[in-house]
Automatic annotation (TrEMBL):
Residues 132-277 form the Methyl-accepting transducer domain. This is Methyl-accepting chemotaxis protein signaling domain protein. GO terms for cellular component: membrane. The keyword GTP-binding does not apply. SUPFAM superfamilies: Methyl-accepting chemotaxis protein (MCP) signaling domain. Pfam families: MCPsignal. One of its GO terms (biological process) is signal transduction. It comes from Clostridium saccharoperbutylacetonicum N1-4(HMT). It comes from the Bacteria. Keywords: Transducer. The keyword Manganese does not apply.
Amino acid sequence: MKIFEDEDILLNLSYLLPFISSLFGDDISMLVSDREKILKVVRHDTSVGNSYGEGHSLPTDIPAYKCMQENRTVVSNISKEYFGVPLKAVAAPIKNRDGKIIGSIAIGKRDWGNDIDAHAEAFVSSFNEISNVVENVASGIQDVAKSSNDILNEINKTNEDMKKTNEIIDFVRNISKQTNLLGLNAAIESARAGEMGKGFSVVSNEIRNLSSSTSQSINEITTVLNNLRLSVESITGKVYENNQLFEMQAANIEEINSSIAELNNTAKLIKEIAERV
C-alpha cells in the first residue's frame, strides 16, 4: 500500500508540474524525480536542452539528487553539460506521509551570470591572443624597418663611393686628353723631322690611338655609372617610401594596441560583474 501511495504522490506531482511551472514565468524549467530517475520535465526556456529527459537516471551532482541525500533544500548551479546551458536551480526533497524521502522536485532558471562570465573569459582570452599577434606583427615591422634603414645607409655609402668614382674618371679623362695632345705634338714634330722622324711617327700614332681608346672606354664607363646612379637613386626613393610606410603602420599598430588594452579592461570588468551576479 505504501508503494502505491508513494507512486501516487509522484504521479500527481508529475501531472501538476506543467501547471505549477506556468506560475513562475516562461524562462524556467522544472522536474520531478523519484530516488533514481527523472519522471517529468517541463521546459519553458527553449534554450534548455533535452539530453536528460523522462526516464533518464538522475545525475548525482545536481540539486535534485543532492537534496534527497542531504534531506534539505539545495540551491546550486548546474553546468551546461547536462542541459545545454548553465542553470541556477533550487531543489527540495519530496516526502510521503511517513516522512520518508521518495523523490525530489526542482526548478531551474538559466544562469545568465555564468554565461556572461564564460563569454567574458573567452573575450579576454581572445583579446590576449590578438594582442600577442599584434605585438609580433609590430616587432616584425620594427625589424623590417631597421633592416630597411641599414639598406638605406649602405645605399648612401654607395652613392658616396660613386662620387669618388666620378672623380677618378674625370682624372683619367684629363690624362686621356693630355695623352692625345702629347700624341698630336709628337706627330707634328715627327713631320718636321722628315725621314729621321718616321719611327717617332709610329709611336705618336699609337699614343693617339691609346688616348682615343681610353676616351671611348671612359665614355662607356660613365654611361654605365650614370645608369647605376639612377638605379641607386630609384632604390633610395623606394626604400625611403617604405620607411615612411613602416612608420605609419607602427603608429597604427600602437593605436590598435591601445584600443585592445581598453577592450581588454572592459572585458575584465564585465567578468568581475558577472562573478558577482
